[in-house]
């Protein structure tokens, strides 16, 4: 049987990506990138276990001798400063997540993510799972949904860790929450890498204009 090939619903006079969504997207990109960079600095570039001996070597060449504990004090200063940045960016991400909910409610019709997901699901049912475009579109929408859920988990666990020292009940689950937070961070990192690769691939092949759409708004939004 030949799969049905009905097109998407009629379009509206609205752009596919609202101004609120575009501003949120780029702000979220900056904040998440900053969060990942702080982790990169802490655990790779200035890893505390290796930077301490390097401090000692540099100081020794200047004729200054520091004990291991004194060097640890220096590395803690660096570590705490980067963690302060991480916490500040985490608070910003919390605000952005709340803003994303506001943007979703404030958008109209086909600009809403829920409508875009509904349109993708309907086209997938109409055209069948064997049609690559409809399958790809639906998978992309579900990947965005998964990303939003990752952000919720990151923000929730991050807030727990932020107040764990002040609230006994939170302190008792701090270790487990930290593991969930770290694991989710790797998921966000994997999504970010996959998203960038996907956008580059699309821009170089048949789906050009994705970046431009997120800057200028793109074509008209579709009705559910």
Automatic annotation (TrEMBL):
Transmembrane ranges, per UniProt, are: 23-46, 85-103, 144-163, 183-204
Coiled-coil intervals, chain numbering: none
User: Where in or outside the cell is it found?
Assistant: Cell membrane
Specify the domain of life of the species encoding this protein: Bacteria
Task: Could you list this entry's UniProt keywords, alphabetically sorted.
Answer: Cell membrane, Electron transport, Heme, Iron, Membrane, Metal-binding, Transmembrane, Transmembrane helix, Transport
Which Pfam families does the UniProt record give?
Ni_hydr_CYTB
Per the database record, which ranges form the Cytochrome b561 bacterial/Ni-hydrogenase domain?
18-217
Transport is among the record's keywords: yes
**Membrane topology classification:** Multi-pass membrane protein
Entry's family note: Belongs to the HupC/HyaC/HydC family.
**How is this protein named in the record?**
Cytochrome b561 bacterial/Ni-hydrogenase domain-containing protein
Please report the organism this UniProt entry assigns to the protein.
Hymenobacter glacieicola
């Amino acid at each position: 049987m030949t799969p049905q090939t009905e097109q998407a619903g009629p379009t509206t006079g609205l752009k596919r990506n609202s101004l609120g969504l575009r501003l949120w997207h780029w702000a979220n990109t900056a904040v998440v990138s900053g969060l990942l960079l702080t982790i990169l600095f802490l655990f790779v570039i200035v890893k505390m276990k290796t930077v301490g001996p390097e401090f000692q070597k540099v100081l020794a060449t200047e004729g200054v001798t520091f004990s291991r504990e004194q060097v640890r004090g220096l590395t803690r200063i660096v570590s705490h400063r980067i963690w302060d940045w991480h916490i500040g960016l985490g608070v910003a991400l919390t605000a952005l997540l709340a803003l994303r909910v506001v943007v979703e409610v404030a958008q109209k019709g086909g600009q809403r993510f829920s409508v875009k997901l509904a349109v993708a699901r309907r086209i997938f049912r109409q055209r069948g799972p064997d049609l690559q475009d409809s399958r790809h579109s639906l998978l992309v929408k579900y990947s965005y949904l998964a990303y939003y859920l990752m952000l919720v988990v990151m923000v929730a666990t991050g807030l727990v860790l932020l107040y764990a020292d002040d609230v006994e009940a939170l302190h008792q689950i701090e270790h487990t929450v930290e593991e969930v937070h770290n694991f989710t961070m790797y998921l966000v990192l994997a999504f970010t890498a996959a998203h960038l690769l996907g956008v580059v691939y699309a821009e170089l092949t048949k789906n050009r204009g994705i970046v431009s759409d997120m800057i200028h708004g793109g074509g008209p939004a579709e009705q559910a």
